[in-house]
Amino acid sequence: MSLVFSEIEDPPVERTPVHLLTDILIIGILSVIGESKGWEDMENYGLSKYDWLEQFLALPEAIPSAETFRRVFEPINPKIFERCFRRWIESIVEAPGAQVIPIDGKTLKGSYDREQGKSALDLVSAWSSEHRLVLGQVKQDDKSME
C-alpha cells in the first residue's frame, strides 16, 4: 500500500511523527467514502471504526487528530493524489474480464448558478458492480455525455 502512495510526501513535523502517512491517507479516503465532510469527521470516523481499522492498519498511536488530517491533506497536490488513488484502485480491482462496468451520466442538482450564467455540473461515472466501487468519474463540459 505504501508503494502506491509513495509519490505523496509526508509533511515534516517539528516533533517525532507518531502516525504513519499510509494510515492517515487510508482513514481519510475511507471516511470520505463514508460521507465525511471535514477534518473532524475524519477523526470521528476513525474513532468509530477503530476496531475494524486496526485489523489492517498499523495505528501506532491510535487515530490521528483532526489537526493531523488537515496538516497532511492540505499540502497534497491533487493531481499526484489522483494518480496514486487510481493506482491503488487498479491494484485492488481485478481485470474486468466479463464483468459488466456500468457507465452512467448524472447532472448534479443545484450545481448551476443562474446569476453567473454557469450551467449545472454533468458527470460521467464508471461503476464496478462486483466491487461496489466507482472506478472513475469525469466532468463533462456540456450535456453530450460522450
Labels describing this entry:
globular; single chain; 2 domains; 146 residues
Q: Please, could you describe this protein's structure?
A:
- The protein has 146 residues and is an alpha+beta fold.
- It folds into two domains: 21-92; 103-140.
- The chain is built from five helices and three strands, in the order H-H-H-H-H-E-E-E.
- The chain has a three-stranded antiparallel sheet with strand order 1-2-3.
- A hairpin with a 4-residue loop joins strand 2 and strand 3 (133-140).
- The radius of gyration is 18 Å and the shape is globular.
- The relative contact order is 0.13.
Number of domains: 2
Residue stretches low in confidence (pLDDT < 50, at least 5 long) are none
The overall pLDDT, averaged over residues, is: 82
Helix-strand pattern: HHHHHEEE
Strand order of the largest sheet: 1-2-3
Tell me the Rg in angstroms.
Answer: 18 Å
Largest sheet: 3 strands, antiparallel
* Helical coverage, percent range: 25-40%
Q: Assign an overall shape.
A: globular
Instruction: Provide the β-strand percentage band.
Output: 5-15%
Question: Given the structure, what is the number of helices?
Answer: 5
**Distance between the ends:** 34 Å
Can you count the beta strands?
Answer: 3
Structural class given helices, strands, pairing? alpha+beta
